[in-house]
Amino acid sequence: MPRPKHEDISSAGQDSFLDVVTNIVGILIILVMLVGGRARKVIQDAMPVRGERVAVLEQEVVTLDQKVALAESEVEELAAQGRTVATAAAFAGEARLHLATAVSAAKIEIDRIKQETDAAKVKAAEAAARRRELETEIERCTLEAEGLAHLPATTKEVLAYPTPVGRTVNGEEIHFRLGEGRIAYIPIEDLFELAKAHTRRHSNSIAEMASRIESVGPVQGFSLDYVIEAKVDQARGQVLIRSREWVVRPVGSGNGETTDVALSPRSRFRQVLSAVTPDATVTLWCYPDSFDAYRTIREELHRLGIPTACRPMPEGAPIGGSTEGSKSVVQ
């Protein structure tokens, strides 16, 4: 009797396990597909429905994009125009600088030409004035010549002065001031006496008398400023007081008499000359504006036989003297 076949238990078990695994994998695939489909549906249900508002907003976004693009284009164009304007402004600034320089140079040249023109006008005016003066002078001389030609012959006395030999004045000296075309008597001796009396009356000690400036006057239109000096003579036991420097100043203006008035019979000048002693000398302190008056007065003093000394004075200088000064010289 044949032996029955025995089945392999191990192989049967492996097939059953594979079938189970296969079934499980299939189930999992089916579940994944179901879950994925449901998830897609949920996502689709969750998405909002596009409406008219969304379309309008999208249209506005498109419009704004277009406007932005247009604005950017305009900005670029304006930037290009700005660069052009800046370049033109730079050229204009340089041109303005050149123009200002040219204007300044032209102004300087115009000023120079104007100055030259003004100087030429002044010279022309001076020349014209000088020409008129010369023409007037020629006409006057011509008239005088014609008048002299018809006058009878006359003689004129001419004063002849002796050869000038100078000598120092040591005697009495009478002073006159010649200024502004006027002659004024200077009472120097009266002023000195007044100064001596003033010094004795106001000096209480030697210290007060040392190098002190005093003033007296006015006397006959003149005042005296002087510096007193005290010196002690120990050998004799005396104090010597003297005037070291003195200055005579006219009080106010217009002092004295004109030449015509001074030469009249009853003038102050004639009264002073009437008391002149034979050994006296007349000293004339003469300023530059009175040389013509000096010549007239000198001729009269020469006619009277009175010795005359002249002391020319610079304009504005005061009449004065000092212990170290020089004496007048008569000719």
Keywords:
331 residues, four-stranded antiparallel sheet, alpha+beta, five-stranded mixed sheet, 11 strands
Task: Describe the fold and architecture.
The protein has 331 residues and is an alpha+beta fold. Among the domains are: 52-152; 167-201 and 251-330, no CATH class. 55% of the residues lie in helices and 20% in strands. Strand 8, helix 7 (291-304) and strand 9 form a beta-alpha-beta unit. The longest helix has 99 residues, at 52-150.
How would you concisely characterize the structure shown here?
The protein has 331 residues and is α+β, with helices and mostly antiparallel strands. The chain contains seven helices and eleven strands.
What's the helical proportion of residues? Answer: 40-55%
Strand order of the largest sheet: 7-3-2-8-9
Give the end-to-end Cα distance, rounded to a whole number of Å: 212 Å
Order of helices and strands: HHEEEHHEEEEHHEHEEE
Strand content: 15-25%
Summarize the biggest pleated sheet.
5 strands, mixed
The helix count comes to 7
* Rg for CA atoms: 66 Å
Topology, please?
Layout: H1 9-46, H2 52-150, E1 167-168, E2 173-179, E3 182-186, H3 188-202, H4 206-209, E4 212-219, E5 222-233, E6 238-250, E7 257-258, H5 259-262, H6 268-274, E8 281-286, H7 291-304, E9 308-312, E10 319-322, E11 329-330
Parallel strand pairs: 2-8, 8-9
Antiparallel strand pairs: 1-11, 2-3, 3-7, 4-5, 5-6, 6-10
